[in-house]
Design brief:
The chain is an all-alpha fold and 185 residues long. The protein has 2 domains: 6-150, Cytochrome-c3 Hydrogenase, chain B (Orthogonal Bundle), CATH 1.10.645; 160-185, no CATH class. It is 65% helix and 2% strand. A hairpin with a 2-residue loop joins β1 and β2 (117-118). The two termini are 29 Å apart.
Length: 185
């Protein structure tokens, strides 16, 4: 647990003044933390938001999730010497930044949610920008996948690295995906 004084800072703020604090919990996924906070408050207060608001929140959270995966993919690729996939991943991240900025006015600390809704409705043309991103994104991912899975240097630096026997995984207390990757169902 990392104590960030979030609770103390919230003691003297209104419900919506706490939203910007949640941006700082994970600057790569601010909308996920914005939504987690306001949805908790809404549940406690018995507030029901519109279906449109729910959909916009999910879209924003999914963009943040993709954003985080692109960061992982790009930095992992560059760490093992694959520069081009890093650039492709970060180009896609920039497109998500632009979507965030078009909607919220900010690229990172968006503070987009409010108890009972969002800070604003989606701006004119935002859905079309999102659709353009979603149309092109699978092709870019396929290209990144091809660049990594056919590159012998990348394969040599990643395959068989960190392998652990099923017995050792159990003895070390592995769980979830790590345990399954070791061959334990």
């Amino acid at each position: 647990y990392l104590h960030s004084s979030f609770e103390k800072l919230g003691e003297y703020r209104t419900w919506n003044q706490i939203v910007p604090l949640t941006d700082r919990m994970d600057y790569l996924a601010p909308l996920i933390y914005n939504c987690a906070y306001v949805m908790s408050v809404e549940k406690l207060m018995g507030i029901e938001v519109t279906e449109r608001c729910k959909v916009v929140r999910v879209i924003c959270m999914e963009l943040d999730r993709i954003f985080g995966h692109l960061l992982w993919l790009g930095t992992t690729a560059i760490d093992v010497g694959a520069f081009t996939p890093f650039l492709y991943a970060f180009q896609q991240r920039e497109k998500i930044y632009k979507l965030h900025e078009a909607f919220t006015g900010a690229r990172i600390t968006t503070s987009a949610t409010r108890v009972g809704g969002m800070m604003a409705d989606l701006p004119e043309g935002w859905i079309e920008q999102l659709e353009a991103f979603l149309d092109a994104f699978p092709r870019t991912l396929a290209e990144i996948d091809h660049l990594l899975t056919t590159n012998q240097i990348h394969i040599g630096r990643t395959q068989g690295v960190g392998a652990i026997t099923p017995e050792d995984a159990i003895n070390y207390g592995f769980t979830g995906p790590n345990l399954r990757a070791a061959g334990v169902d």
